[in-house]
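Two records follow; treat each independently.
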Amino acid sequence: MQSTVTLDGGTLAVEGLTNATLLQLVSGTFEWLDSEFIIDTGEALGDTIDLGPNLTIKVEGSLTNQGTITGDGTLFGALSNNAGATLRVEQGKSIDVV
């Protein structure tokens, strides 16, 4: 990506990303079409994901957390929360794992 892209409703489906720091996920569905999605340093979206209340991250393959997931949204896929990884839900919020 050469400039900032904001997902604020609708669906954005991708097979991979470069310059993912330019991607802002606000609401809608972010669909990862590749076989594996990893939350960690050096990966597509980095080591921290904050799910907004109207944001869904949908993964076609495996979803591996080696970093931190926080927020109030939905994860759709087979989640593996590795040792040392964090899935943090604040009081009054929920993360749905489907």
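The next record belongs to a different protein.
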Amino acid sequence: MLKLEHPTTTVTLIAPQVEELTAANAARFRQSVLDVIDDGNSRLVIDLAKVITVDSTGIGALVAVLKRIGLRGDLALCGLTDRVARNFQVTRMDRVFP
């Protein structure tokens, strides 16, 4: 489900290997990323380039990840398709996620 890359820097790139981040898989995605955080990785970039659909459950999973990181790290999203970016605008999550 996830592709993890640990370059020599302290940023971890997470690339979901799914086209949809929805109720069908959001809990598994959330737990996988929370495990990465619990392993000591607190600067994350989530690359959503392969994701074409994110529903409210998927957004909720991303919010849970953001809450877990809190003030001890950073979370950035990249590679949003137009459709996913539009979902973030409609829900105003584009103001929450950099």
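Discussion point: Strands lie at 2-5, 12-16, 20-21, 43-47, 53-54, 74-78. How would you locate this feature using only the token line?
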